[in-house]
């Protein structure tokens, strides 16, 4: 079992920044993928960015240039630095852990961007 706990969400104004964190605990194996998805009200959950333990990144087009994913493997933690936030970035942001057929979600942290 893997538990994921996100933090760092909140209410900000357009143009401001937030940094999300997700700490994984439990049975963590090397070679995992961790990252972020988001889900706005009434929309499907979508990929923001994923990062392998080796540093390979897969990110959505909307995230490129504004969002930066990083991780600290020693702390089993993944981060998402979000800059120049827009109202359309308002969503619940979910941490994701992947390893083979193993899949886990965090509970989510709300990000609200006011115009």
Report on this model:
The protein is mainly beta and 115 residues long. The chain has no helices and eleven strands. Strands 2, 4, 5, 6, 9, 10 and 11 form a seven-stranded mixed β-sheet that branches. The protein has a four-stranded antiparallel β-sheet with strand order 1-3-8-7, with no helix packed on it. It is globular, with a radius of gyration of 13 Å. The mean pLDDT is 97.
Write a concise keyword list for the protein shown above.
single chain, 115 residues, four-stranded antiparallel beta sheet, 58% strand, globular, mainly beta, 0% helix, seven-stranded mixed beta sheet
Oligomerization state: single chain
Note the beta-strand portion.
over 45%
The major sheet is characterized as: 7 strands, mixed
Low-confidence runs of at least 5 consecutive residues: none
- Overall mean pLDDT stands at 97
Overall strand count: 11
């Amino acid at each position: 079992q893997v538990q994921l706990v996100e933090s760092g969400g909140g209410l900000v104004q357009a143009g401001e920044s937030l940094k999300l964190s997700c700490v994984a605990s439990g049975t963590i194996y090397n070679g995992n993928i961790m990252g972020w998805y988001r889900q706005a009200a009434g929309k499907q959950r979508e990929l923001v960015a994923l990062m392998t333990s080796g540093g390979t990144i897969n990110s959505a087009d909307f995230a490129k240039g504004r969002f930066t994913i990083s991780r600290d493997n020693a702390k089993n933690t993944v981060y998402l630095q979000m800059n120049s936030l827009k109202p359309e970035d308002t969503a619940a942001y979910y941490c994701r852990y992947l390893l083979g057929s193993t899949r886990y979600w965090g509970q989510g942290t709300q990000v609200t961007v006011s115009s």
